[in-house]
Amino acid sequence: MDINECATSNGGCDLLTTCTNTGGSRACGVCPSGYTGTGATGCVAITDCGTANGGCDPLTTCTNTGGVNTCGACPAGYSGTGATRCVRNRVDCYQFLELGESTGDGLYTIDPDGSGSSLPAQVYCDMTGGGWTQILDQDTDALRWMRDSWESSRTEEDNIEVRRVAAEAIAFLVSSRRSDPEV
Questions:
Q1: What is the largest CA-CA distance in the chain?
Q2: Is residue 81 a part of any domain in this protein?
């Protein structure tokens, strides 16, 4: 009569594997994907987090579960994801200038409320004039939003969204007193 070695403690096989009873013995299955080792000696999770933070941004935490890396969220004040890249939010043009990241006058992306609910917006920055954030350019009777970055083919819904983002940016910049509005 054969004793079923698998009936007690999975036959000594790793709990992640299958124990198969054989005549007078047992056979342990292979370790699942994401693990190394054997069912008989034990399955060990392949942890890539120890090398280059598992491909996650250095500002985030790499967690390995079952051989699968998961990157944590970017810290407060940063946008993006740990799996792609964390980018420090710039709330106005002056921050680019004071951090030495200015590439001259032109279009820059700012996020006036940091990692809040509003999306980042593209604005024109006057870097030669001291890092001014230009949100609105009034030219004769027509208002041109976000200086040359918005084509005339935009829909009315796009224009409403641009006005909303500009109004939020103006409100934030004025309330933070980081920039004095220039009219």
A1: 100
A2: yes
What's the pLDDT tens digit per position in 70-107? 999 998 888 788 888 888 888 889 989 888 888 899 99
Q: Do 97 and 77 belong to one domain? A: no
* 6 plus 72 within the same structural domain: no
Q: Express each pLDDT in 136-147 by its tens digit.
A: 665 544 444 444
Output the pTM of the full model: 0.42
Q: How many domains does the chain have?
A: 3
Structural contact between residues 11 and 26, judged by C-beta atoms closer than 8 angstroms: yes
Provide the pLDDT for residue 27.
95
Q: Is residue 182 part of a domain?
A: no
Query: Domain range for residue 146?
Result: 89-176
Question: Hunting for tokens 């004095």 — which residue is that?
Answer: 180
